From TrEMBL, chains A, B:
Name of the protein in question: Phosphoribosylformylglycinamidine synthase subunit PurS
The keyword Plastid is assigned to this record: no
SUPFAM superfamilies the UniProt entry points to: PurS-like
Native source species: Nocardioides mangrovicus
Primary location recorded for the protein, binned into one broad class: cytoplasm
């Protein structure tokens, strides 16, 4: 069993209204010194077998077709343990 | 400038309908061998100054009060670079 994490974040040039909302709320809650906030998604996948090259290529395909929108988001795949 | 990542995931004992929906969609898209999917949130914060203990304690407070719901979610704080 392998655990793989796919992090999906809005591209830097894309507006991120969720991140902006969090950023705007921080001073109202008394927090200062935060210059920017970006909000994205984190997927934890548990896969059968080993983290072979083929399995990871498949995870990249999942990330491109289902987990992210490549027009507005970047993703990163990380194998955990 | 410091970049800090806050990962927020549903607690293991909590139902995760978003993760279940992704998990259910994978076989329909031709992907097999995925045992479980959990979906959470990823926040990237850019902070002024250095990652001192005080700053990180503040980030933990942000995570507890604004970024996560401690009743149903766990969070993890990671300093990047």
């Amino acid at each position: 069993m392998v655990r793989v994490v796919v992090d999906v974040m809005p591209k830097p040039e894309i507006l991120d209204p969720q991140g902006k909302a969090v950023h705007g709320a921080l001073p109202r809650l008394g927090f200062s010194g935060v210059v920017d906030v970006r909000q994205g998604k984190r997927f934890e996948l548990e896969l059968e077998g080993e983290a072979t090259e083929d399995r990871l290529a498949e995870v990249h395909q999942m990330a491109e077709t289902l987990l992210s929108n490549p027009v507005i988001e970047n993703y990163a795949v990380t194998v955990v343990e």
